[in-house]
Write a structure and sequence with these properties.
heterotrimer, A mainly alpha (60), B mainly alpha (247), C mainly alpha (305), A: 60 residues, mainly alpha, 0% strand, B: 247 residues, 2 domains, 13 helices, 64% helix, disordered C terminus
């Protein structure tokens, strides 16, 4: 319970922690659209300037 | 000593309370309740600054009755944490935080009505980067950080920048969805929803994008709040009083 | 929007060096001795031969490379034409497999550059009249590939381009955030064939060109971030093939900077093998794409007022 007359002031570290939370950076890219093994059968049907068959997933 | 994790947990708690008020549950002073029941008072105050202008979304979007204790609680969060810099030399992140505080102060003044609680949070001065969408990727990351401004009852240079940027914002949504950065995607979809609400034509369907990120991205409390505000903007009528305040 | 000067500079460097690499390493792409028209593994050597031919034919068609590069492109086509026994192999393959489309698709770049095979011409003209051939079930972007090959080879045909275009992924102007890797290739090929590898920008309907211009910067951005250089470069060809080209200097300079001095371009960000044969197998496609990208962008820059 926070009494009405209590004044609380954050330390510089706490101010910085709030700053981080308020201005969140974007996340690092995860599971972007990459070659999938299931594309391989499809690729056989393509000719001329279609990509190579995908390699094994890289877990990027 | 409170940590970033304590602040994040408190922000989630406040987001849940705001969401439930937005959905029409109860008639309690939600911000004061959040402070009173918090194990860590400072974290509870920090949460108000994180949720920012969205703290008022039940009143702005759903016409919930406002309580004076809530205004007091918001004002105290400004006493606990200093205002970020707004001058020409302030770093971009500080100016971004300052815009969020400005929005909170604006809505406090509007929603609080006759209460004596006021927060003197100024607009950042001459924030030229807002209008420069050439580097739309970085610009969109900043607009996502400013997503709490995307609600009715607020207007200013950030909104002016958004009005002219339906394409960069739509590209930003597309990029964030493909990068599977769903929190950022949702925040940008909020801006699209706001533009849609303003009658701006968009190059992509914001409702379909919203549904996609909701189903794929899951709903942390803060993201759920962003989704709920965006959905309100896209689907529901805003209460009359707020409509007038907008003009 | 025009093709900016830094893009033209990067494009020249990309096309010239990529062609040099293809020419220098052509022997690694030779068919095994005794290969017949049956071709057990068409994707192994036969298809890459067609791709090298395509790159050389685009450079000859555009004519914007330096004189030395035009000689090299001609020499490369002579080489691939000899590999295919001056068209006999394509003829025998088409003779044996009426419904197969690859002999026509392989032949088109040769036909464009004046390498003709009379019996194959006659067979293709006959084949083009068969409803059975027209009815072969292909993916929509593959139908465009066949239609464009027939157009380039000068076959008499009645093609409903609008209907073929509507059937593709791009034709539906879908949600841009729901694209995946293989669909991005389907998109690039739809544009390649409708514009005949950048030579007919208006072949892409205006509404689709606008759609592509709207979202291409996003797709290039995300696949650049994960270093899918082969796809990024194909998307750059798409940008250079639009009626109003989209060529961002940063993208072109990135690929030009990535390219090795000898013209080699890696297909992605993974480590590259030291074995020459493996390198050729893994990355020849990307070098081909780089040569085509450079030539198409240079040609667009040259044609501008």
């Amino acid at each position: 319970m926070l009494a009405q007359d209590t004044r609380i002031t954050a330390t510089p570290t706490e101010v910085a922690a709030l700053g981080d939370l308020v201005v969140e950076p974007e996340a690092t890219i995860s599971d972007p659209p990459l070659p999938a093994p299931e594309a391989a059968g499809f690729l056989l049907a393509l000719l001329l300037l279609s990509p190579k068959e995908p390699k094994e997933p890289k877990g990027k | 000593m409170s940590s970033r994790a304590d602040f994040a947990a408190a922000a989630d708690d406040l987001a849940i309370r705001v969401l439930s008020a937005l959905r029409g549950a109860g008639d309690t002073a939600l911000v004061a309740g959040h402070i009173d029941s918090a194990p860590d008072a400072l974290a509870a105050l920090a949460a108000i600054r994180v949720i920012g202008a969205d703290t008022f979304s039940p009143y702005v979007l759903a016409g919930a009755p406002f309580h004076a204790e809530d205004a007091a609680a918001v004002a105290r969060s400004f006493e606990a944490f200093p205002l970020p810099g707004t001058g020409p030399t302030a770093p971009t992140d500080e100016r971004t935080a300052a815009w969020r505080d400005w929005a909170t102060a604006q809505l406090l003044a509007r929603v609080g009505g006759e209460t004596t609680w006021r927060v003197d949070a100024a607009q950042p001065e001459d924030d030229r980067a807002l209008a420069d969408t050439a580097d739309w990727q970085r610009w969109c990351v900043r607009m996502a950080q400013l997503a709490t401004l995307a609600q009715p009852g607020l207007d200013g240079p950030v909104h002016e920048a958004a009005r002219g940027a339906a394409l960069p914002l739509s590209r930003g949504v597309t990029r964030s969805v493909l990068r599977r950065d769903f929190p950022t995607a949702v925040r940008l979809i909020r801006w699209l929803a706001w533009l849609d609400h303003e009658g701006v034509t968009l190059p992509l369907d914001p409702l379909l994008a919203l549904e996609h990120v909701r189903l794929l991205g899951g709903e942390s409390p803060r993201t759920a709040l962003d989704l709920a505000v965006a959905r309100h903007l896209l689907e529901e009528r805003i209460p009359e009083a707020t409509q007038e305040a907008r003009t | 929007m025009t093709v900016p000067a830094p893009v033209a500079a990067a494009a020249r460097s990309m096309a010239d060096r990529a062609l040099s690499w293809l020419h220098a390493h052509r022997a690694l792409g030779a068919l095994p001795p005794g290969t017949t028209a049956e071709i057990a593994d068409p994707d192994g050597v036969y298809k890459p031969l067609g791709e090298t031919t395509l790159a050389a034919s685009v450079i000859l068609r555009d004519g914007v490379a330096g004189p030395g590069q035009l000689v090299a492109a001609q020499s490369l086509m002579d080489f691939t034409w000899e590999q295919l026994r001056r068209g006999d192999m394509l003829y025998e393959r088409q003779l044996r497999h009426t419904l197969m489309t690859d002999p026509l698709e392989m032949y088109a770049p040769f036909a464009r550059c004046g390498y003709r095979h009379t019996d194959l011409d006659r067979l293709l003209a006959h084949r083009a009249r068969l409803r059975s051939v027209d009815g072969v079930e292909l993916l929509p972007n593959r139908r465009l590939a066949v239609a464009n090959a027939a157009r380039v080879a000068g076959l008499d045909q009645d093609v409903d381009w609008a209907a073929l275009t509507r059937a593709t992924w791009l034709g539906a102007t879908p949600e841009p955030w729901a694209i995946n890797w293989i669909t991005a290739y389907a998109l690039t090929h739809t544009v390649f064939h409708l514009t005949d590898w950048g030579a007919r920008p208006r072949g892409l309907p205006a509404a689709l060109a606008e759609y592509v211009r709207t979202w291409l910067p996003v797709w290039i951005d995300i696949w650049r971030e994960v270093e899918q250089w082969d796809l990024v470069t194909e998307l750059m060809i798409v940008g250079a093939s639009l009626d109003e080209p989209y060529c961002a200097p940063g993208d072109w300079e990135a690929i030009a900077a990535l390219q090795h001095e000898d013209g080699f371009v890696p297909c992605d960000g993974d480590p590259v093998s030291d074995d020459p044969q493996q390198r050729f197998k893994d990355h020849q496609h990307t070098v081909v794409v780089t040569a085509v990208a450079g030539s198409v962008a240079l040609a667009r820059a040259a044609r501008e007022p």
